[in-house]
Model the fold of this input.
Amino acid sequence: MRAAPSVPTIETPRLILRGWRDADVESWVGMNAHPRVTEFLGQSFTRDAAVSRAAVIRAELERNGYGWWVVEIKDGRRFAGAIVLREVPFEAHFTPAHEIGWRLAFEHWGHGYATEGAAAVLDFAFTRLGWSEVVAFTAEVNLRSRRVMERLGMTRDLAGDFEHPAFAPGHRLCRHVLYRARSNR
Ligand SMILES: CC(C)(COP(=O)(O)OP(=O)(O)OC[C@H]1O[C@@H](n2cnc3c(N)ncnc32)[C@H](O)[C@@H]1OP(=O)(O)O)[C@@H](O)C(=O)NCCC(=O)NCCS
Done:
């Protein structure tokens, strides 16, 4: 099945960010089964949970025109992961807000794909969606994700650290850091 025409495609030198195809679901399941990928997410995904989640986020992307895009590497047309723009789905001191996030299949780490794709998605948020600010956050200990935020030029909000409500107080992933990017339009 082809991606729904309503999903905007975002292109970078090495990547295409696009809507979902049926074949992406297996790649998504495989990505989310890798322990390095879920190390800082606070949850592991059974096959059924990953399949259901893919159906939900695919429908959201097709309905809203933003959400979890599939990241495809142009060279070989390989599934590399997914990058998301969405409303922050919980209440915190900085919400309501729009967030950006990323998840790559482990074999595609270390090539700059997350930063390259996310830079284009941020530009989409500011120029096409007209958003004035996008935040990103991650567990304080998720240094790889924090480095993506820094490579993107996002600004750490030093007063913004927060306890993520999905984790029990004191859980090793509870403490989160907050970064912000503002439109310069
Ligand atoms: C967070 C995550 C997306 C980062 O992936 P990544 O590959 O480290 O990030 P980038 O795509 O920006 O790549 C940067 C790395 O590629 C290297 N690189 C190689 N070629 C590059 C290029 N052309 N341009 C930029 N970087 C390049 C960089 O040196 C850097 O490597 P280093 O960190 O070892 O120094 C990945 O670790 C992941 O999916 N984690 C699991 C999910 C997760 O935790 N998501 C965040 C939840 S909030």
